[in-house]
Fold this sequence. Notes:
Mean pLDDT: 96
Bound molecules: cobalt (II) ion
Distance between the termini: 34 Å
Strand content: 25-35%
Number of strands: 12
Shape: globular
Low-confidence stretches: none
Number of helices: 10
Structural class: alpha+beta
Largest sheet: 7 strands, mixed
Helix content: 25-40%
Amino acid sequence: MGLNSRDDAGVFQISPELALIQTVDYFAPVVDDPFDYGQIAVANSLSDIYAMGAKPMVGLNIVGFPTNTLSLDILKEILRGGLLKAREAGVTVLGGHSVKNPEISFGMAVTGIAHPDEIVKNNTARPGDLLILTKPIGTGILTTALKNEKLPAELLPVITEKMKQLNDRAAEVMKRFGATACTDVTGFGLLGHLFEMTDKTDVSAVLDPSKVPLLPGAEEFRQKGSIPGGLKNNAKYIRDKLSIHSPDTEKWLQLLSDPQTSGGLLIAIPPENADACLRELKKNGYPEAAVIGEFTAKKEAEIILK
Length: 306
Ligand code: CO
Ligand code: CO
């Protein structure tokens, strides 16, 4: 698809009927449990394939591990988690590569396939399309609280489950309802990835922040100062691309800039299909899915916060 589009994954057309979709991602642990971490890392790595409406086929593990200071049993658990998640996605893990590294890191290079005509791009939303988000946000703030040993024990399984959840069924549903564009919400936060949907296009996004689903505790721990470094960078980058009408400028700028691990899909959907699509998403394991805004003809800014 070329390197000047900021789409989620690389596309290489093999034949008129077949395109390869490739992506790679890896990161440091976001939770302490190695089995959960392995699952989260692979769910996150697969996400860019789903965002493009493609089917992931094969993966290669990427591992950094401090073999001289940590037990290899931990690595085994990480890989076991990754393999479990890959299996759930119908992905065959062909192998991988590991390096000795002072910090743990894990992820996957993934290859998927799609019919070239069925690839969902991130910058093809049309004026009038509604904007759906499939998972609640706040994992950056909450995993920062976890790192600082401030996260209440009962919230850990809640955020872990969300990060482990695949975007596979959301992708299937959005294609069924004629999504015109899609991206996944990861490191640049909701606003950063929404900007990719509007930048250098004829559309702006009008977002109603009060409709954005938040993880329990996200606003509380934002107020208490669990602010990840990535959030600050994201907010600084996106600030002049926004027109903010809401009086709670700082609150929304921070929450909507929170970097997500294995976040949900941001989907542009024709307005006549939005209700049915939302119902189907909720039925398919995304109970917090919500219409959070709409695309319009280009306005004074790329993104307008109501
Ligand atoms: Co992405
Ligand atoms: Co990515």
